[in-house]
Amino acid sequence: MTKRSGPLSGIKILEFAGIGPAPFCGMLLSDLGADVVRIDRKGGQDYDKYSVTTRGRRSVAIDLKNPSGVEACLKLIEQAEGLIEGYRPGVMERLGLGPETAFTRNPKLVYGRMTGWGQTGPLARTAGHDINYIAITGALNAIGYKDKPGIPLNLIGDYGGGALYLAFGLLAGIIHARETGQGQVVDAAMSDGTISMLAIFFGNIAAGSWKNERYANIIDGGSHFYNVYQCADDQWISLASIEPQFYKLLLEKTGITDPAFQNQHDKEQWPALREKLARVPREIADTDARLQKTLELLLPLYSYDVDAAGMEMAECDARALEETWNDMVRLQEEGVYPAAFERIREPVLMLHGAADPHPGKMVRRTLQHYLPQLEYREWEKCGHFPWLEKEARDEFFAILGDWIERRFI
Predict the structure, then answer these.
(1) What's the rounded Cα separation, in Å, for the pair 390 and 398?
(2) What is the spatial distance between Cα 399 and Cα 5, in angstroms, rounded to a whole number?
(3) 3-class secondary structure for 337-403?
């Protein structure tokens, strides 16, 4: 199996498949070199080919309701330093895979749990999504226009307060476990993480430098010098000239001489100054005109598009295909594949590319890599092996036969 590189190389993480912040955390750790193995549900649906956050790790599809499947997971836990799970509180315990059981198999394990509300409390078992988790923290109420809160992308709760805090906690726990031999539970709740990220605002409110209302502060859209404005081409620019030297440069570049603009921090004047400043970019031909020359102050707003996503997927596919081919070469050297396979790279990569990520598709090599002492047949009782299914075999040999015919006949 191809050796992973990166600062987290050598760290083994077991990830129980989920949605939102848990797979994003697994992606971050994998991108930095950790060896992350994902436990998928037996018989689960294939991942969408554009599911970027599932990249970079191998999949083992296991029936978690089967005692043999639970034992398989516990065997993998014995080999791992960290674990990621994002189920509702109590689910892992009911499966027989809770922290207490896991620690009996691996006392050094760092058991990462991702929830919205935490493992305990009045809302612990309540369903929710990002917008609910950040609503109770005050973050949602602080975003938007004066008359109505805005609806942000799920970057705040799911990924900021959730995935990043879980990744940080896992790595801190692993460092501690390596030094002391003692594992621990990392309970990362999205609501808790969001409150932590609001620390500076709580401090500013206490100091009297931040109003506890929307569209009334320097960086929440209240000020005229930290805002977005529409240009004559109907595109938008972002303006951020907080520091005095940059604010002075803004006035120079725009040719503004109105004395009202000299009192930058007069909050009573901000609404009127926003309206006046909004007329300036509307008079400019487009977003690449003279304002754009001062990149310290402003940049155009770009939308994410298919090309950007496609570029990342192409890079993702390339890494996955290269890893697959390296595995093929190694297996050939070990005598598993005949030498003729050296010349059939094309059909093999067509089947195993990251654009078609089947849960459990790499189960055989993954389990043999982690648990070589066990017979592979023992795992057939609890796993899901697409490669053994007739449809998958027929597809492979149909592609292989077609390729050989076009190449050699």
Answers:
(1) 12
(2) 33
(3) CCHHHHHCHHHHHHHHCCCCCCCCCCHHHHHHHHCCCCCHHHHHHCECCHHHCHHHHHHHHHHHHHH
CA 128 to chain centre: 19
Band of pLDDT at residue 311, cut at 50, 70 and 90: very low
- The answer to whether domain 226-300 has CATH 3.30.1540.10 is yes
Question: Which stretches of 150-279 are assigned E, i.e. beta strand?
Answer: 184-189, 226-230, 236-240
Using a 10 angstrom Cβ sphere, with 0-12 exposed, 13-18 middle and 19 or more buried, the burial of residue 304 is exposed
pLDDT of residue 254: 84
Q: In 3D, which of 359, 351, 407 has the Cα closest to residue 58?
A: 359
Q: List the catalytic residues.
A: 129, 158
Average pLDDT of the chain is: 79
Beta strands in 213-278 (DSSP E): 226-230, 236-240
What helix, strand, coil percent values describe the chain, rounded to 5?
50, 10, 40
Helix (H, G, I), strand (E, B) or coil at 50: coil
The residue behind tokens 């030498």 is: 339
Whether 315 shows a pLDDT value over 50: the answer reads no
Q: Where are the domains of the chain?
A: 12-197, 226-300
The matching CATH number, chosen from 1.10.1740.10, 1.20.272.10, 3.40.50.10540, 3.40.190.10, for 12-197 is: 3.40.50.10540
Sheet strands (E) in 95-251: 110-115, 144-145, 148-149, 184-189, 226-230, 236-240
Which residue from 279, 280, 276, 260 is spatially nearest to 268, judged by alpha carbons?
Answer: 260
User: Which of 400, 310, 311 lies closest to 352, judged by CA?
Assistant: 400
3-state secondary structure of 198: coil
User: For the whole model, what pTM was predicted?
Assistant: 0.76
C-alpha 261 chain-centroid distance: 42
Q: Residue for token digits 């050296």?
A: 342
pLDDT higher than threshold 80 for residue 167: yes
pLDDT tens figures, 22-79: 999 999 999 999 999 999 988 777 777 778 888 888 888 899 999 999 999 999 999 9
* CA neighbours closer than 13 Å in the CB half-sphere of residue 318: 6
Q: Give the phi and the psi of residue 399 in degrees, each rounded to 5.
A: -65, -45
DSSP symbol at 44? P
